[in-house]
Design a protein that fits this description.
Phytanoyl-CoA dioxygenase family protein, 7 helices, Jelly Rolls, globular, 4-stranded antiparallel beta sheet, about 25% helix, Phytyl_CoA_dOase-like, 7-stranded antiparallel beta sheet, about 300 residues, alpha+beta, 13 strands, dioxygenase activity
Length: about 300
């Protein structure tokens, strides 16, 4: 007999990769609560594809102010060994700065931008708090090795996030067009949960070792091929500076492989429902630090006034 407490979304402590049906809705609210500025067509696109690009969410002045704050932050932390700073392993270039509200008042205001909060509250049908945030920066002429993954697989396994009731958004601080090597997504992949084998228990073939190492939370090539076939194509999340890419917590995404002569920067924000508080991580893992997964700073966010 199956246990009633069986995890519907197991990962890593499993013997083979698996596909599981998503149990939660993508859009939690009724259509009658939809913000006036969000069209029914855009909502349907988000529900079907798992992401939506909204242009001109930030004004040119707001982008300019945030760009100055980003430059100052990068200059300040260049020689910093803080755990809030993530670096490229080979070049030591700064990749990310974690916990944006602590970085500057401007980023704290961005987290509480009325349009971001309104969209998050509508999609999740509740008040929200900030689960995680970071400033991502990709310098010109660099390659970023970031594998296909679902954020929810990480948050569920490593943070104990119970359900798919979180929303991610990428606020574009620079243009993210085809020539900028933008993020890639598999449309519709958010409808299926992918449980992944711990790479430490997964033998690597010679062909796999020659092309790509197994990484924690990475779906198998067979599952990625199936999801891509179902989608029909892999899509780039493109937009001009000031645009926002909203995407479901379970969509498969990665960074483009090729280098670009243009730098790319975005503020990555994750809103979690206050009804979806973190529990115990899976597989006996210890909770991650507060700057990676908030457990204490979980007050509902208030709009900027």
């Amino acid at each position: 007999m199956l246990s009633l407490c069986r995890d519907p979304y197991p990962s890593r402590a499993i013997s083979e990769h698996l596909l599981a049906r998503r149990h939660e809705p993508v859009v939690w609210s009724e259509a009658s609560a939809r913000p006036e500025w969000l069209s029914a067509e855009d909502e349907a696109k988000f529900a079907e594809q798992g992401f939506l690009v909204l242009p001109n969410v930030l004004t040119a002045d707001e982008v300019a102010e945030l760009t100055i704050a980003m430059t100052q932050l990068r200059d300040e932390v260049t020689a910093n060994d803080s755990p809030l700073v993530l670096r490229e392993q080979e070049s030591d270039d700064i990749l990310s700065f974690l916990d944006l509200p602590s970085a500057s008042p401007l980023f704290d205001r961005l987290v509480r931008h009325p349009k971001l909060l309104e969209f998050a509250r509508y999609i999740l049908a509740s008040e929200v708090y900030l689960h995680q945030s970071r400033l991502n920066y990709r310098a010109a002429n660099t390659q970023e090795e970031f594998y296909w993954h679902s954020d929810f697989e990480t948050w569920h396994t490593e943070d104990g996030m119970p359900a798919m009731r979180a929303l991610s958004c990428s606020v574009l601080l620079t243009d993210n067009l085809a020539e900028h090597a933008p993020k890639l997504l598999i449309p519709g992949s958010h409808k299926t949960y992918v449980g992944c084998v711990d790479p430490a228990t997964c033998p690597v073939t010679d062909d796999e070792a020659a092309h790509e190492s197994h990484t924690m939370g990475q779906p198998s090539p067979e599952i990625l091929s199936l999801l891509t076939h179902q989608a029909g194509e892999v899509t780039s999340a493109t937009g001009l500076a000031g645009s926002v890419v909203f995407f479901d917590c379970n969509i498969q995404h990665r960074s483009a492989d090729e280098a670009s002569k243009h730098p790319r920067a975005n503020a990555f924000l994750v809103y979690n429902s206050v009804e979806n508080m973190l529990g115990t991580p899976a597989n006996g893992l210890e909770p991650r630090p507060e700057h990676l997964a908030h457990r204490e700073q979980v007050d509902p966010l208030q709009d900027v006034k």
